[in-house]
Amino acid sequence: DNMDPRASLSILVLLVGISLANPVRIPLKGFTKSGNISKMWLNVHIFLSSKYVSLITGSAEHLIEGDLVFPKTKNALYCLNNNCFWKRNSSNLVEVPYIVSSEYSSTDISVIQNAMSTFHNKTCIRFIPRSNQTDYISIENKDGCYSYLGRIGGKQLVSFKRTGCVYHGIIQHELNHALGFYHEHTRSDRDQYVKINWEYIPTEKASNFQIRNTNNQNTTYDYGSIMHYGKIAFTTQAGKETITPIPDATVAIGQRQDLSKLDILRINKLYGCVV
Ligand SMILES: *C1O[C@H](CO)[C@@H](O)[C@H](O)[C@H]1NC(C)=O
Ligand SMILES: *[C@@H]1O[C@H](CO)[C@@H](O)[C@H](O)[C@H]1NC(C)=O
Ligand SMILES: *[C@@H]1O[C@H](CO)[C@@H](O)[C@H](O)[C@H]1NC(C)=O
Ligand SMILES: *[C@@H]1O[C@H](CO)[C@@H](O)[C@H](O)[C@H]1NC(C)=O
Ligand SMILES: *[C@@H]1O[C@H](CO)[C@@H](O)[C@H](O)[C@H]1NC(C)=O
Ligand SMILES: [Zn+2]
Questions:
Q1: CA 50, CA 92: separation in Å to the nearest integer?
Q2: Residues with Cβ within 6 A of ligand 3?
Q3: Residue of the nearest CA to atom 1 in ligand 1?
Q4: What is the C-alpha to C-alpha distance for residues 37 and 43, in angstroms, rounded to an integer?
Q5: Ligand nearest, relative to CA of residue 168
Q6: Residue 168 counted as an annotated binding residue
Q7: ∠ CA 70-72-77, rounded to 5°
Q8: Taking the model in full, what pTM does it have?
Q9: 173 annotated as belonging to a binding site for a ligand
Q10: Which CATH number fits domain 63-183+265-271: 3.30.420.10, 3.40.390.10, 3.90.1580.10, 3.30.450.40?
Q11: pLDDT (tens digit per residue) in 247-264
């Protein structure tokens, strides 16, 4: 009410500046419980009249966060050399030591440990509490759900924000990145299985859709992988798909319920698990 008129003028000028282009996208802090959604945006259309600026809310879109952190010192492709994987011990098990932030509740921790138990039950990966190991993951309540790709050496962050990331499938997804797996829709042969609709992908997000030089280990493309993005990931226009399965556009992608059979097979192949 007591707003300095100069201040409101400058806000007005700012809004005029952005009203000429597309809707303004405002990230919402809330996260939904559905596994394949980790971030929402509100599209706000701004209209200007001679006397006032009104904000008209458009549709909310659900986007998946780009959740891979690429270490500056190492090219992610380097992870395809065995240097970026965790080591198998002489009992043929692969220990991945971890520590967990004290910010999590005991419920959060049991959700995290239950997700880890899927790997224990189906593969030779063993997430173990760290004692004095040099290389380990540090599970922290940072701003989002993300991980480095593969073992980077020393302490490496895996972030599960308490509000929005502590869900079974999301935890599996990020832990699988830490084991060295890329997103399925970026694998080398993906153009035979999905069409990327670049026209709906913001330039600054295009890297999330770049093909990677992946080692597919003779396994077929997996629409049901926990590492696959959903159809409208990062879309600039509500409802427009950025990824469309081909030839059958109705095939489901982007599930965040559980590791798929092929996700499990690939872990076992990559790490030489005897199961
Ligand atoms: C993911 O999003 C798609 C498209 O919005 C939806 O159809 C699907 O049910 C969602 N999957 C999960 C696991 O929530
Ligand atoms: C290999 O790792 C497993 C799981 O942590 C452990 O029980 C076992 O003692 C380890 N074997 C050796 C030889 O270190
Ligand atoms: C893994 O196996 C244990 C022991 O059988 C079981 O209690 C646990 O629920 C299983 N975890 C998952 C995620 O299936
Ligand atoms: C960890 O502790 C064990 C037992 O004290 C020791 O044998 C091992 O060398 C230590 N490892 C590292 C990386 O310091
Ligand atoms: C894939 O299959 C080919 C032919 O069957 C074989 O030569 C190759 O070693 C396999 N690669 C892997 C990673 O299993
Ligand atoms: Zn991811």
A1: 72
A2: 114, 117-118, 121
A3: 36
A4: 16
A5: 3
A6: no
A7: 55
A8: 0.74
A9: yes
A10: 3.40.390.10
A11: 999 999 999 999 999 999
